[in-house]
Structure formats: structure tokens, C-alpha cells
């Protein structure tokens, strides 16, 4: 099985993040994090458009069941009522300390938004010098209530759930851990934390920092490797890397499945100050021919 990698939107971001495939419109939504823009890439027309949310930091854009989107800007969660009208209404103000920011988020199968936080830098993180343990993992229920679940996270990042919603997978990039938790979808709680994959161990060499993550229909994890130019497929039962896809730039940030049958992997990336030998850094990549598929992403129920 050989895959093909294509830069479908070239150099559209400084720090591309938070990809979400909307199957009803065949569009990929994503953010340019330290610019504060949200993007919509229409895979049918090839058109990429952007909106600024009124801040210099945005990390989440996920469609709502009621229409429009739930978005994050800095330490706030908000509703963007439609792509065309560009009206942003806050629904949860300052859920984090002023020095921090909201980072990656994803909606569970009940329509609840999970999101994490970290210290807010001014630019693409230097992982070795990031203030430790400033972040947390939260959820936002459809009724607007915010709950904190885990503290002492350094850079809260990728998350996803297994098919029967009994397990939540979650990443702290600086701890370099992919964790699993028992997940109670009715109560919206996590418990029994354990390590699935340890990127600091010698068993997973040269993989950089785990960042965004998605899951395929076989229950295997696809993890973006920041500073290593890869997305790896991990078997959470064994904690081993069972496949590696290499990209033409180092700072690979996140991934999600998309396309008409969810067999394409869309991958975001970040651009260093000087593109140098990686002229495609900051592009959106599409990987085809992987021979696996993902599933429809959930929309926010609030
Ligand atoms: Ca991330």
C-alpha cells in the first residue's frame, strides 16, 4: 500500500491547526493559530477562504448542530453564527488565566466539546522552553457549563474516542505522552489514566512531540509528530508505531480524515520563520491511498 501526499492549500498558515472535516459540505475547517484566523477549504472547488475572529489567537472551529460554529479565541469560547455573516458571540469568557490560551478541541459523540489549554506564547512553541503545568483539560456541555477535568498539563493537544466511547485518548505534547482514560459519555467524565505511547522512550525514537490526533475505524491512532515531519499510526493495544507517513516539512501539527468516504487524511503544518529547505511548510496536505478510513466528525450540540 503506498500513499500519495499532495499540498492542497500551499502556505496558507503560520501555524495550521485544528482540522475538522465537514462531510455535508465537503469542506475542511482549520485555524491559523497565532494569527487568529479560521479557514474553510472547499475540497470540491479547491477554494480556501479565511475569517479573523477578532483576536490574534484562535484554536477551534467546529460546526454546531444548530448551524454556525463553536470557536475559541484566546481564553474565550464563542459562537460564529455563519461563515458569511461573520458575527462572533461569546458563550464562555476567560475560562483560563490571562497568561494562557485555549488549545486543541474536539466534540464527543454526545455533542459535548472537549478542549485543553496551555501557557500562551507569542509564536510557534519552542518545546524545550515552554512553561510547565499551566494547562488543563476541560469540557463544555451543550448547556454552556464548563468543567475542568485534569490539571498540570503543559501543552494540551490531540484527543479522540474509540468506537464505543469507552476510551478517550489524549495528548500532552511536552509530557510527550499519549494517554488513555476510561470514558463515561453520559456523565462526561474521564478516569483511570494510563500511558498508551511514550514519545520520550527509546521504543518510539525520532518522533518529536505528539500533537494533534485522530482515530481510524480499526481503532488505531494517527498522531501528528511536531518537529519530526511525520504522522504515525499507533496501535493503542501495544503502544507501537505500525506505520509512518513522512512530510516535506518538520512541524506537522494535526490531522483528520475527510473526503467523500473518509479515506483521505488531511494534515496541518506550521512554518518556521525561514522556509529554507521546506518551502511547503505551513501548507495543508492531503494523503490518499492509505487504505484506511476515519469516521464522521461530531458537531457541537450547544
Ligand atoms: Ca495542536
Write up what this structure looks like:
The strands form six sheets. A four-stranded antiparallel sheet has the order 1-24-23-22, with no helix packed on it. It has a four-stranded antiparallel sheet with strand order 2-3-4-5, with no helix packed on it. It has a four-stranded antiparallel sheet with strand order 6-7-8-9, with no helix packed on it. It has strands spanning about 5-10, 15-20, 25-30, 35-40, 50, 60-65, 70-75, 75-80, 90, 100-105, 115-120, 135-140, 145-155, 155-160, 165-170, 175-185, 190-200, 210-215, 220-225, 230-235, 240-245, 250-260, 265-270, 285-290. The chain contains no helices and 24 strands. The protein has one domain (about 5-290): TolB, C-terminal domain (Neuraminidase, 6 Propeller), CATH 2.120.10.30. The chain is about 0% helix and about 50% strand. It is mainly β and about 300 residues long. Calcium ion binds near residues 103, 104, 157, 211 and 253.
List the helices and strands and how they pair.
Elements (H helix, E strand, L loop, with lengths): L3 E6 L6 E7 L4 E6 L4 E6 L5 E5 L5 E6 L5 E5 L2 E5 L7 E5 L7 E8 L5 E7 L15 E6 L5 E8 L2 E6 L5 E6 L4 E8 L4 E10 L10 E7 L5 E6 L3 E6 L4 E7 L5 E7 L5 E6 L14 E5 L14
Antiparallel strand pairs: 1-24, 2-3, 3-4, 4-5, 6-7, 7-8, 8-9, 10-11, 11-12, 12-13, 14-15, 15-16, 16-17, 18-19, 19-20, 20-21, 22-23, 23-24
The chain binds calcium ion.
Calcium ion binds next to strand 10, strand 18 and strand 22.
Amino acid at each position: 500500500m503506498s500513499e500519495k501526499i499532495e499540498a492542497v492549500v500551499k502556505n496558507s498558515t503560520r501555524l495550521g491547526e485544528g482540522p475538522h472535516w465537514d462531510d455535508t459540505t465537503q469542506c475542511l475547517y482549520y485555524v491559523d493559530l497565532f494569527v487568529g484566523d479560521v479557514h474553510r477549504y472547499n475540497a470540491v472547488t479547491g477554494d480556501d477562504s479565511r475569517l479573523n475572529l477578532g483576536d490574534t489567537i484562535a484554536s477551534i472551529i467546529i460546526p454546531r448542530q444548530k448551524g454556525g460554529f463553536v470557536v475559541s479565541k484566546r481564553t474565550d469560547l464563542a459562537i460564529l453564527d455563519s461563515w458569511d455573516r461573520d458575527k462572533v458571540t461569546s458563550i464562555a469568557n476567560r475560562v483560563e488565566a490571562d497568561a494562557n490560551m485555549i488549545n486543541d478541541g474536539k466534540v464527543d459523540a454526545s455533542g459535548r466539546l472537549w478542549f485543553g489549554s496551555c501557557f500562551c506564547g507569542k509564536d510557534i512553541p519552542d518545546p524545550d522552553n515552554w512553561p510547565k503545568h499551566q494547562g488543563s483539560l476541560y469540557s463544555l456541555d451543550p448547556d454552556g457549563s464548563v468543567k475542568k477535568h485534569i490539571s498540570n498539563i503543559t501543552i494540551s493537544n490531540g484527543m479522540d474516542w474509540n468506537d464505543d466511547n469507552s476510551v478517550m485518548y489524549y495528548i500532552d505534547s511536552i509530557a510527550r505522552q499519549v494517554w488513555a482514560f476510561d470514558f463515561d459519555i453520559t456523565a462526561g467524565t474521564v478516569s483511570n489514566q494510563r500511558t498508551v505511547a511514550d514519545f520520550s522512550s527509546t521504543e518510539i525514537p525520532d518522533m518529536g512531540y505528539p500533537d494533534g490526533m485522530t482515530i481510524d475505524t480499526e481503532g488505531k491512532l494517527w498522531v501528528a509528530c511536531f518537529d519530526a515531519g511525520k504522522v504515525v499510526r499507533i496501535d493503542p493495544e501495544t503502544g507501537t508505531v505500525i506505520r509512518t507517513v513522512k512530510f516535506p516539512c518538520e512541524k506537522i501539527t494535526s490531522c483528520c480524515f475527510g473526503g467523500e468516504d473518509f479515506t483521505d487524511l488531511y494534515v496541518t503544518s506550521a512554518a518556521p520563520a525561514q522556509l529554507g529547505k521546506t518551502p511547503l511548510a505551513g501548507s495543508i496536505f492531503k494523503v490518499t491511498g492509505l487504505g484506511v478510513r476515519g469516521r464522521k466528525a461530531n458537531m457541537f450540540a450547544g
